[in-house]
TrEMBL record:
Residues 171-466 form the GH10 domain. Pfam families: Glyco_hydro_10. InterPro entries: GH, GH10, GH10_dom. This is GH10 domain-containing protein. Belongs to the glycosyl hydrolase 10 (cellulase F) family. It comes from Solanum tuberosum.
């Protein structure tokens, strides 16, 4: 049996709950995913119609039991008992919540299996006078791999027509096609340790076309003392990026965590700090203009507030404005942790969305959503629900620093990493993934993909299985049918195709972008 509870600060409230059995990883046959990505981030005058027609559980009358809220105080919470749950299955839920005696409050939903601790599975900042949408879920038996996920959003059907110079169809022509690149970038972080390390470079380049630098671009590295700029290592790493036709994220311009702020900045007056920040922006963006395809502007601003304490509540807004003035084409991101990883009272999906709206109201363009994704044991259903709410912003979503805590063994890390990657890749609003797995002589931050000789660990095997096998179309061979056509379904991206007919070979390329219709390609021989 499992207890489903709602925890909150002491206040009166009302709610409606809908629970849905989403999918099972233990199914013997493939079942098309019927998960509903609908989400609402604006408070509603009345609750919107329930998902799944109410699902397997719908109630307005739960049992109230005393539990500890997020502050440790005892409060009466609505509680529901769930029985006969299926192992390895994802359960999704949604709830409409309205608070009565305060203007707003953080409401969290938790699950508590028998004789185990309660775990948060969803949260919302509920408001007075209107209904707020809470969405979440849980994976029953978290060591199971939720494999029944639909990747149809990443693929499209193609028909290649082969015709001769007179426009007549050519049946029986030999067709060979291969995918050159995919349109879903997956990369990993590198550090200076890759420079001159040929085995490391060979391993990296076989798998990745995207990267981000660990610390080398951060302010405390490029200007350790006032006015003493040092881009030597960054320049060397950018040569590696350019030489190998990689794309790189800019991480980061500023970091709100005071631990990573240079000592010489801490005692500055506000005007002095503003001048130093302006110099930082101008120095970096003029030197590497248009080189980084994303920029994390003020890292982890929901958890920390060094610049806000020094410069006021509009500090981040001014950073965005200054960077946009310096380079209007720069793609500027928010970047934060504990948005998809777990419940966090400081940094939750509603606070993230509110921050985006405040910046937009201030006149700046936030062009992307950065989710650091430093996981312990992942909750795919919670992750999916958060992504649904973020998708309402209609912006590119990136998982920017994916890893799994080193508290787990290698095999368990691999299981969890695969869950995270599959969940992200299957979500239609996620545009890319960056891993946080650079190899250094002392190991890795949390997750290594290889040993020190660049032989795959179990986590590396997961990467190879997904990137090199499952998530690419690979090479296909066949012949045109009686209508002179060849049909296939492939992952989105760039393709090379060769046609052999009457001892003549014709080569061509084409791009496969998102679309629900079949893409038609005509090749003349």
């Amino acid at each position: 049996m499992l207890m489903l509870m709602w925890r909150k600060s002491p206040l009166f409230w009302t709610f409606f709950l809908f629970l849905f059995f989403a999918t099972s990883s233990l199914a013997k046959h493939r079942v098309r995913n019927v998960y509903d990505h609908s989400a609402w981030t604006e408070c509603q005058a009345e609750p919107v119609a329930q998902l799944y027609n109410g699902g397997i559980l719908r109630t307005k009358f739960p049992i109230y039991q005393p539990v500890k809220d997020i502050n440790g105080d005892m409060v009466d919470s609505p509680t529901l008992s769930l029985e006969n749950l299926s192992q390895g299955s994802i359960y999704s839920f949604s709830s409409w919540v309205r608070v009565k005696n305060v203007n707003s409050a953080l409401v969290t939903a938790t699950v508590k299996p028998d004789n185990k601790y309660a775990k948060c599975i969803g949260s919302v900042i509920a408001k007075k006078g209107c209904w707020s949408f809470l969405k979440g879920g849980f994976l029953w038996d978290s060591t199971s791999n939720s494999s029944e996920i639909d990747f149809q959003e990443r693929k499209r059907s193609v028909t290649i027509h082969v015709v001769d110079k007179n426009g007549l169809r050519v049946p029986g022509a030999a067709v060979k096609l291969s995918q050159i690149s995919t349109d879903f970038p997956i990369g990993t972080m590198i550090s200076r340790t890759i420079l001159g390390n040929l085995p490391y470079q060979e391993w990296f380049l076989k798998r990745f076309k995207a990267t981000v630098f660990e610390n080398e671009l951060k302010w405390y590295k490029t200007e350790p003392l006032p006015g003493q700029f040092n881009y030597t290592v960054v320049d060397q790493m950018m040569k590696f990026v350019r030489k190998n036709k990689l794309i790189a994220r800019g991480h980061n311009m500023f970091w709100d965590d005071p631990v990573y702020v240079q000592d010489w900045l801490e005692n500055m007056t506000a005007p002095q700090l503003q001048r130093a920040m302006k110099s930082r922006i101008k120095s970096v963006m003029s030197k590497y203009r248009n080189e980084f395809f994303h920029w994390d502007v003020n890292n982890e601003l929901l958890h920390f507030d060094f610049y806000e304490k020094k410069l006021g509540p509009k500090a981040t807004l001014d950073m965005f404005k200054s960077m946009q003035r310096e380079d209007p084409l720069a793609t500027l991101f928010l970047n934060e942790y504990n948005i998809v990883e777990r419940c966090d009272s400081k940094a939750n999906v509603d606070r993230y969305i509110d921050t985006f709206k405040e910046l937009k109201k201030g006149g700046v363009k936030v062009a992307g959503i950065g989710l650091e994704s430093h996981f312990s044991a992942p909750n795919p259903a919670f992750m999916r629900a958060v992504l649904d709410k973020l998708a309402t912003l209609k912006l590119p979503i990136w998982l920017t620093e994916v890893d799994v805590s080193s508290m787990y063994g290698q095999e368990e890390q691999a299981v969890f990493l695969e869950q995270i990657l599959r969940e992200a890749f299957s979500h239609p609003s996620v545009n890319g993934i960056m891993l946080w797995t650079a190899r250094s002589p002392g190991g890795c931050y949390q997750t290594c993909l290889t040993d020190d000789k660049f032989q795959n660990l179990p986590t590396g095997d997961v990467i190879d299985q997904l990137l090199l096998n499952e998530w690419t179309t690979g090479t296909k061979r066949g012949k045109t049918n009686e209508f002179g056509s060849y049909n296939f379904r492939g992952f989105l991206g760039e393709f090379k195709v060769s046609i052999l007919y009457n001892r003549t070979i014709v080569n061509s390329t084409f791009s496969l972008v998102h679309g629900v219709d079949t893409k038609h390609i005509t090749i003349h021989v």
